[in-house]
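pinned: reference chain
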Amino acid sequence: MNAPQEILIQNRGFKYGDAVFETLKVNGTKILYLEDHYFRLMASMRMIRMEIPMNFTMEFFESEILSAIQESGEGGPSYRVRFSVYRKDGGLYTPKTNDVEYVIDIKSLEHELYLFNETSYEIELFKDHYICPQILSTLKTNNSVINVIGSVFAEENNYQNCLLLNTDKRIVEALNANVFVVKDNHIKTPGLDDGCIKGVMRRQLIEMIKLIPDYTFEEAKVSPFELQKADEIFLTNVISGIQPVTKYRKKTNEHTIAKDLLAKLNLKVRLG
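pinned: its structure tokens
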């Protein structure tokens, strides 16, 4: 629903990026990874000093999302939900209140399970601007200018995505996903201290990989040089699941491990 213009102008999420959000996938009436999303949202609100309402329980969070889906009129087996929380209107940089309001945006998805996309998916580094690695960079907030500019750059140059770098020139993440790099059977992803988003799917994959004896895993710094030596690169978020990268510069990548992990992820989704 479009907000009246005068409300939009005063909204602190619009004026100052004073908002945090969660993007969730809902299959029917089941919210995937509900606890992870809820606790990440609560942690984000506390981090930016929002007042968390007493009734803002996980049950309330779940109920509001499912009610919004029912009222939206969107049809489909699955839904993409954005749950945005912003501080109430008032004040300039200093808010008049730390009380919050929220809005829920719903879009239908065609599939409940994650599909394996084997079409061409080429990435490049985005080096016009850098992420300063700090705890705020790990949060999902409305301050997404680098992601927007990077997405424009990717579209202008016919890339499907770009990887962001931090001020130490290390790999952080993709424009809309976390990144994993594979060499032999060793899987590696940048740590939170490098500034990456504390992704819900990232956490799911890390927990799953650690239980598979065929693979070793490491959270560690990833240099751009490692990308050219990697056997596989794949991106993760809760909407697409696992997206294999087919090409980085002149290197064509495999996707055997990404395909195996996606099958295991879908099994977990089925079993609930």
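why pinned: The longest helix spans residues 256-271. The chain is about 30% helix and 30% strand.
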